[in-house]
Automatic annotation (TrEMBL):
Domain spans labelled Enoyl reductase (ER): 8-338
Protein's UniProt keywords contain Heme: no
Zinc keyword on record: yes
Record key words, sorted: Metal-binding, Oxidoreductase, Plasmid, Zinc
Cofactor(s) in the UniProt record: Zn(2+)
InterPro entries: ADH-like_C, ADH-like_N, ADH_Zn_CS, ER, GroES-like_sf, NAD(P)-bd_dom_sf, Zn_alcohol_dh
Name of the protein: Alcohol dehydrogenase catalytic domain-containing protein
SMART domains referenced in this protein's UniProt entry, alphabetically: PKS_ER
One Pfam family here: ADH_zinc_N
Organism: Shinella sumterensis
Length: 340
């Protein structure tokens, strides 16, 4: 089968490899859609954010969806021809975090596409417990987007308690931030979307953002405060990982606001007294979603009538992998997806 590898230094290799054989507790999924994520670019450049030295040796892709074509002898809840998306973290299955469905917090976890073979291939074998059942009404393309891209931001938005009374600031309007706009709007929030790239601001507006701003504008903070009634935002999501954006989110947070950092960064300096303590702001990190959250995520997609396919501005075949990663790296796409 064809499979995509990222050995570093902006190299993209399409290799012919054996179709994996599922173990007793695994299924074999014929991949129909698999998304490219900003974290994949760490593999593209050779400085993986997950896995360290072990990363870069596996088939890439941690956001796949497809159809089951074979099941192991111990598989009980899924069967051949079931349509599924896949949770990216393979945990030990028995620790407290795994039993709660937070496989990505397991001390022994492996990550699809980084330290375990992922979904940028024609087939993938994964444990049954990692399967996320797709409704018949959801396409494979939407199913792939429903995991890391939308699921992660939906989980973060729920942690922030976003509702009809919320004014939400979202910094960084790549695929994650754009998904955050959809999630926050579906939960009832009024959304301020911020990015220095004009095309991204326009895209966020098309998704329903109530106000779009260039965060580098000298008037941006004043416009945020005016929109938020002078009090500041009640919830904030940073998807950029940029220190200036993270500090801006904290600066314009209202008293008792909740702020989530989603974008990866090595370190950030903040002003704890002014930004946190004296405003009694809650600051949290939010990383992926627990497998038990997925049914609620699907309900939010359904009740909010969210068209997840809007996030996919470009689709590619596996043979076009080099072009796909180059354009994604050059920020000429929003969500880029391999379709098989």
């Amino acid at each position: 089968m064809k499979a995509v590898f990222l050995p570093g230094n902006k190299r993209v290799e399409i290799r012919a490899v054996e179709v994996p054989k599922p173990r007793q507790d695994e299924v074999l999924v014929q991949v129909k859609a698999s998304c490219i994520c900003r974290s994949d670019l760490s593999l593209y450049y050779g400085n993986a954010v997950v896995g360290g030295d072990a990363a870069g040796r596996c088939i890439t892709g941690h956001e796949p969806a497809g159809i089951i074509v074979e099941v192991g002898s111990a598989v009980r809840q899924f069967k051949k021809d079931d349509r599924v998306a896949i949770h990216l973290a393979v945990g030990c299955g028995v620790c407290a975090y795994c039993r709660a469905g937070h496989f990505h917090l397991c001390a022994e976890w492996t990550c699809l596409g980084f330290t375990a073979d992922g979904g940028n291939a024609e087939y993938i074998a994964v444990p049954e417990r990692n399967l996320l059942r797709l409704p018949d009404s959801m396409s494979y393309l939407a199913g792939a987007i429903s995991t890391d891209a939308f699921g992660t931001l939906c989980s973060a938005a729920r942690k922030l308690g976003i509702n009809g009374l919320s004014t939400v600031g979202i910094w960084g309007l790549g695929p994650m931030g754009s998904a955050g706009v959809l999630a926050a709007k579906a939960l009832g929030g009024k959304v301020i979307a911020l990015d220095p790239i004009a095309e991204r601001r326009e895209f966020a507006a098309s998704l329903g953002a109530d106000l779009v701003l260039d965060p580098t504008s000298p008037m941006a903070r004043e416009e945020i405060m005016d929109f938020a009634g002078g009090r500041g935002v009640t919830a904030a999501l940073d998807c950029s990982g940029n220190g200036a954006a993270q500090n801006m989110a904290l600066d314009v947070a209202a008293p008792f606001a909740k702020v989530a950092f989603v974008g990866e960064s090595r370190e950030t300096t903040i002003k704890t007294s002014d930004q946190l303590i004296r405003k009694q702001v809650s600051l949290m990190g939010s990383w992926y979603f627990g497998v038990s959250e997925y049914d609620d995520i699907l309900r939010i997609v359904e009740t909010g009538k969210i068209d997840l396919e809007k996030l996919a501005t470009h689709t590619f075949s596996l043979d076009e992998a080099e072009t796909a990663f180059r354009l994604f790296d050059e920020r000429k796409t929003e969500k880029a997806v391999f379709l098989m």
